[in-house]
Structure formats: C-alpha cells, structure tokens
C-alpha cells in the first residue's frame, strides 16, 4: 500500500514526554521513530500533532486533590482519565522526539491548550465537537487519505482515527508505527473501536 500524491502521513504526539524517560512514557514509545522516518520519505504531505498543555491543566491528576494519575474523574464533557503532568507548553517534554526526520512536514496541530478540556484527537477536543481546524485544512488542500502513526495507540491515535472516519476521510492506521499505554486492555479496545469506525489497520506499509 503505497501513498499517493494526495495522501497525508499524520504523525501523532511523538514527543519526549511520551517516550522512555518522559513524564507519561508510553512503553517502547521511541521505537516508532525509525519506522515513521522511513515512511515519511514516500509522502508528499505530512502533518504532526503536538500535545501542548498549560501548567495546571484540568486533565492532570495534580489539579484534582486526592486523585492519582491513571484514575478517572467526571468532567462537563464526560469521563476523563487523569494523567501525570506532561507536555507543558515550552518544556523539553513537549518537544518532538529529536530523532524525528520529517522535512516535508507542512503543519503542526497543537492540542490540549484549553485548560478546561483535554484533547486526544487531531480533529476535535474531548467534547468531540470543538474542532482543531485540521479537517478544514485537509479539505481545502484536497487531501483525502490519512495514514496515522504515533502515540498512543489507545488514546490519541484511536480518537484521531475514529474522528477522521466520522468526517469521511479514508483512514489507515499503521500499527507497527504506533505504541500504546494499555490501561486495563485499552489497546485491544482501541484497535476494535478503530476497526469498527471503518479505519483500515495494517502492520506496516
């Protein structure tokens, strides 16, 4: 499955805090970098997402006295997993992994900067209605098929793929270039949800 001239490599949250040694490290997270760099050579278009939280973000466990990371709370938009403080704006942890080599990257979508709501998806905040603007950008550019890679399979990759399908974009998730957190089976649940949404799941391209 080779990319065409109107296909996009969507690189999701390959940031220091999600890699080994980071504040919210995804197991083996940095191992996606070589695969992403290899694939990027074949794409004319590349978009990156970047978690970009202000200090004290409402999704941080530290903002909820008595709550521990990886527990949940109810927010106005629904259930929210609480995380360790991570990807704080301007911090080294929020920077992209230094091994990424994506010279054709055209756009960075920063998400999670609203202190009152988290944002997993490249397309919508976690209320599933507030847009990031990515859909409009892709449509105006005439770009229609997305290849999703990055971190984490069960959260930001999953919700990005589901929303891409909901918006009518053909969506391929390249699993070898994704890694998951896996909270209580969330990777298997995420893979099932992406497949149910109509995304094509492949091991590699």
Class computed from helices, strands and strand pairing: alpha/beta
Shape: globular
Strand content: 15-25%
Radius of gyration: 16 Å
N-end to C-end Cα span? 6 Å
Average pLDDT confidence is 97
Instruction: Give the beta-strand count.
Output: 8
The helix/strand order is EHEEEEHEHEHE
Quick overview:
With 205 residues, the chain is of the alpha/beta class.
Give an overview in words.
Belongs to the isochorismatase family. Its EC number is 3.5.1.19. One of its GO terms (molecular function) is nicotinamidase activity. InterPro entries: Isochorismatase-like_dom, Isochorismatase-like_sf, Isochorismatase_Nicotinamidase. This is nicotinamidase. Strand 7 (170-179), helix 4 (186-197) and strand 8 form a beta-alpha-beta unit. Helix 3 (153-166) packs parallel to helix 4. The protein has helices at 32-40, 134-141, 153-166, 186-197; strands spanning 7-12, 45-51, 72-75, 78-81, 105-111, 145-151, 170-179, 200-202. It contains 4 helices and 8 strands; from the N terminus they run βαββββαβαβαβ. It has 205 residues and is α/β, with parallel strands linked by helices. Strands 5-2-1-6-7-8 form a 6-stranded parallel β-sheet.
How would the blueprint of this fold be written?
Layout lengths: L6 E6 L19 H9 L4 E7 L20 E4 L2 E4 L23 E7 L22 H8 L3 E7 L1 H14 L3 E10 L6 H12 L2 E3 L3
Please describe the structure with a list of short key phrases separated by commas or semicolons:
about 200 residues, 4 helices, nicotinamidase, EC 3.5.1.19, pyridine nucleotide biosynthesis, Isochorismatase_Nicotinamidase, alpha/beta, single chain, six-stranded parallel beta sheet
């Amino acid at each position: 499955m080779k990319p065409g001239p109107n296909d996009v490599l969507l690189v999701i949250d390959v940031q220091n805090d999600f890699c080994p040694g980071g504040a919210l490290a995804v197991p083996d997270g940095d191992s996606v970098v070589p695969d992403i760099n290899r694939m990027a050579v074949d794409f004319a278009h590349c978009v990156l997402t970047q978690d970009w939280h202000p200090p004290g973000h409402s999704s941080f466990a530290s903002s909820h006295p008595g709550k521990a990371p990886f527990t949940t709370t109810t927010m106005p938009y629904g259930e929210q997993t609480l995380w360790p403080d991570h990807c704080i704006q301007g911090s080294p942890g929020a920077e992209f992994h230094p091994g990424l080599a994506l010279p054709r990257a055209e756009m960075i979508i920063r998400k999670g900067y609203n202190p009152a709501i988290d944002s997993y998806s490249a397309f919508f905040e976690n209320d599933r209605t507030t847009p990031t603007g990515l859909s409009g950008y892709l449509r105006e550019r005439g770009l229609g098929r997305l290849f999703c890679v990055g971190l984490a399979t069960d959260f930001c990759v999953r919700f990005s793929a589901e929303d891409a399908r909901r918006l009518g974009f053909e969506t391929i998730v390249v699993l070898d270039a994704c890694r998951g957190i896996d909270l209580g089976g969330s990777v298997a649940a995420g893979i099932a949800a992406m497949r149910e949404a109509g995304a094509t799941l492949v091991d590699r391209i």
